[in-house]
Specification:
- The complex is a heterodimer of chains A (587) and B (79).
- Chain A is an alpha+beta fold and 587 residues long.
- Chain A is 39% helix and 14% strand.
- Chain A has helices spanning 27-38, 91-97, 144-155, 166-169, 195-201, 222-238, 247-251, 256-262, 284-295, 330-335, 345-358, 362-374, 383-395, 398-404, 407-413, 436-444, 457-462, 476-493, 500-505, 507-521, 527-547, 560-563, 577-585; strands at residues 2-7, 12-17, 52-56, 69-75, 82-88, 100-106, 116-123, 128-135, 160-163, 177-180, 186-190, 204-210, 316-317, 323-325, 421-422, 425-426.
- In chain A, the strands form 4 sheets. Chain A has a 6-stranded mixed β-sheet, sandwiched between helices.
- In chain A, helix 1 crosses helix 18, helix 6 packs antiparallel against helix 20 and helix 18 (476-493) crosses helix 23.
- Chain A is globular.
- Chain B contains 1 helix and 5 strands.
- Chain B is globular and about 35 Å long.
- In chain B, 35% of the residues are buried.
- Chain B is mainly beta and 79 residues long.
- Chain B has a 5-stranded mixed β-sheet, with no helix packed on it.
- The chains are: A alpha+beta (587), B mainly beta (79).
- The A-B interface holds A 239-242, 246-248, 250-256, 258-259, 262-264, 275, 278-281, 283-286, 289, 312, 330-331, 451-452, 455, 457-458, 461-464, 467, 469-471, 497-498, 501, 568-569 and B 6, 8-10, 12, 20-22, 49-50, 52, 55-57, 71, 73-79.
């Protein structure tokens, strides 16, 4: 295993051995550690001193189910702090099988507007990965749906591709890095925090991986790995949420729209209500039934990446049976639906497709458009106007560039006080005033408002891992802390976070998950060990943020959430600051 | 008394023909609880995971009042 460094100042590369202190670090743990060790905390995120790091998880590239996650880290142009965003794609397993523990992109070319691609293949003679650069400038500024087929045509069907769209090229703080799905769609995003702009700032347009002939991932204790893998598989395949034709496979992640709406926690019209009167029309059930009507049969969801046995990715089809978009995620249909007062599923799908085409994060885009509607640029519910504004973002008009800077900047430009961000990052699809634990996660995570960082929704709304009252703050700081630490480990394991549903409820599944990781590494970890691993990751990230000027005072929700009661429960966010501070103080 | 009911995800098949987002009004006996509603709708209790009454999660023995709005879910998750 190596660390592969690509220097974009002169388009050179070198392979380094993995330092002893990185031996057990993978995925988020490794991207965050390298950012901490090598990126000056006060550097400009789009300048020559920032670095972009890719790392797959501990079990990524093995036969472990649902484990094809790739973590991407850097200093974020959106939050000014550390960022890790991850995606499911064949790209992650390919990187792992090429024996590249971390791919570090550094430096910056002098030429403005010039782009390169890097192909990484296995050199069978040298028994090492090798990098070849190519001119990618002709691909710049174009829709990624137009560009991806040309890349596959040029490099072959078996490669996997990471890229950025026009949003990244323009330096938007709202821009993601896109990876291909199983059908070669450019639709799997490490979306949050502006990492697309970091990649583009280095003149890097593509990283194309070909794992042909590569040795694969070594497994220290194959028997332990196999035992763990079987236990985790059984848990995934039997739990009602993750099993075949279960909730995720049938309705996708957007199945959550209705339950959050019933619970009064679905942020609506820029976080002014917890209920959207047309929520059902934008939900996973609507996607499933619309497809059934248009296609004449029931269509179950597909895998975003190889080896996934949950398979939650949907496709929305047009009346003429052509594909409208894939995938309509919960976060996306909320951000561009309820959050904008938009009920038209087809228009929401169009917006998702445009976000993908331009390389925008759907959550940040929806948050920004919600603030734009609050500012009166277009009215709530105006889906055609919203489509037009996303097109402005893609084309780079002055308005589009403002919106591409994200929710907080747009709020400042228009004097809006109702701006749902933490540390500059737009909130996802759960209302903190109606679900207090997730509000604590939003406030305290190192990432800026991020639901995945500590998904207390499981016990607060879904009845997974017990049931707790979402409106109560009692015990929620400790709950968020525990979820955040465990999540930091899951994000380092390479597994999709959705294994949390079966492993939280099924003890043997959790045991199998830990055994799988131990099997790869030759360790004998317990549950305590993985929580300690995750906590160490969080402390490293927090130390970077503090050095970047983001201190405990930033662990707060926007003031309006303490002032304005949210219907229907008419609650404010009443978690005391001392409870927020205790999340890290007591870690 | 009458209560308003919405079924979601796979439970939608217990009220066939309901349009998405529509609410059904059901006549039930005074003092009936959520579990009585399951029986009325022929929904096996073990396939229900979460029930919300007026936006608050309630257990099956929770006693309903007239005009309550009830939302019933099988196990679901996402994110």
């Amino acid at each position: 295993m190596w660390i592969l460094r690509i220097n974009m100042t002169d388009q050179s590369y070198k392979l380094e051995d993995i330092p002893e202190e990185y031996r057990q670090l993978y995925g988020r743990a490794l991207t965050s550690q390298i950012v901490f060790d090598e990126v000056p905390p006060l550097c400009h995120p789009l300048g020559p001193n920032n670095k972009l790091i890719f790392s797959a998880g501990i079990v990524t590239g093995t036969t472990a189910a649902t484990s094809a996650r790739i973590s991407v880290g850097a200093k974020s142009p959106l939050t000014g702090g550390i960022k890790e965003a991850n995606a499911g794609s064949a790209w992650g397993p390919d990187l792992a099988r090429l024996n590249i523990r971390a791919l570090v992109i550094e430096g910056q070319p002098k030429e403005k507007g010039a782009y390169w691609g890097a192909t990484i293949e296995w050199d069978p003679t040298a028994q090492k990965p090798a990098v070849v650069f190519f001119d990618a400038t002709p691909y710049a500024g174009r829709d990624v749906y137009e560009v991806y087929p040309k890349i596959f045509e040029r490099f072959g069907d078996s490669v996997s591709v990471a890229s950025v769209g026009a949003a990244g090229e323009r330096g938007y703080a709202n821009s993601g890095i896109v990876f291909n799905d199983m059908a070669k769609r450019p639709s799997r995003f490490a979306g949050r925090g502006g990492l697309g702009a970091v990649m583009a700032s280095k003149g890097l347009k593509f990283v194309v991986l070909n794992d042909k002939g590569a040795p694969g991932v070594p497994i220290a204790d194959p028997a332990l790995f196999a035992e763990g893998k079987n236990k985790l598989n059984d848990a995934i395949l039997t739990h009602d949420i993750s099993k075949p034709k279960g909730g995720l496979n049938t309705y996708g992640t957007a199945v959550l729209i209705n339950i959050l709406n019933e619970a009064g926690g679905l942020p609506t019209r820029n976080f002014s209500s917890g209920r959207f009167e047309y929520a059902g029309e934008t939900a996973g059930e609507a996607v499933f039934e619309t497809n059934k009507e248009r296609m004449g049969k029931e269509i179950y969801n597909h895998a975003c990446s190889p080896g996934c046995i949950i398979q939650c990715s949907n496709t929305l089809y047009n009346p003429d049976k052509s594909e409208r978009t894939s995938c309509v995620e919960y976060e996306s249909t909320w951000a561009l639906g309820a959050n904008l007062g938009v009920r038209d599923l087809d228009d929401i799908a169009t917006m998702i497709q445009l976000c993908n085409a331009y390389g925008l994060d759907t959550i940040e885009t929806g948050g920004t458009l919600g603030v734009a509607m609050e500012a009166g640029i277009i009215p709530f519910g105006d889906s055609k106007g919203a489509i037009g504004l996303i097109e402005d973002m893609g084309k780079g008009t002055p308005m589009g560039r403002l919106l591409g800077s994200g929710t907080e900047t747009t709020g400042k430009a228009y004097g809006v006080t109702h701006v749902p961000t933490v540390k500059g990052q737009s909130m996802p699809a759960y209302e903190p005033r109606a679900v207090k634990g997730i509000g604590i996660t939003y406030a305290t995570t190192t990432m800026g408002a991020d639901h995945t960082a500590g998904y207390t929704i499981a016990p607060e709304i879904l009845g997974v891992s017990g049931k707790v009252d979402p409106l109560s703050a009692e015990g929620k700081a400790a709950m968020s802390r525990a979820f955040q630490a465990t999540t930091a480990f899951i994000d380092s394991s390479g597994h999709c976070l959705f294994i949390a549903f079966p492993i939280l409820d099924i003890a043997s599944g959790f045991e199998g998950f830990v055994q799988e990781c131990s099997g790869v590494l030759g360790t004998h970890w317990t549950a305590d060990d993985i929580v300690a691993y995750g906590a160490k990751v969080l402390k490293t990230e927090r130390a970077f943020n503090e050095a970047a000027g983001i201190k405990a005072e930033a662990d707060r929700l926007p003031e309006f959430m303490r002032l304005e009661p949210l219907p229907p429960h008419n609650q404010v966010f009443d978690v005391p600051d001392s409870a927020l501070d205790s999340v890290f103080k007591e870690m | 008394m009458r209560v308003k009911v919405r079924l979601y995800a796979s439970l939608r098949s217990y009220l066939p023909g309901m349009k998405i987002g529509d609410t059904t009004e059901l006549e039930i006996q005074d003092g009936a609880c959520i579990a009585d509603l399951f029986r009325e709708l022929h929904i096996p209790r073990e396939i229900v995971k979460m029930s919300f009454v007026n936006g608050i999660s309630r257990e099956p023995d929770f006693v309903l009042n007239a005009d309550d709005q009830v939302g019933i879910f099988p196990p679901i998750g996402g994110g």
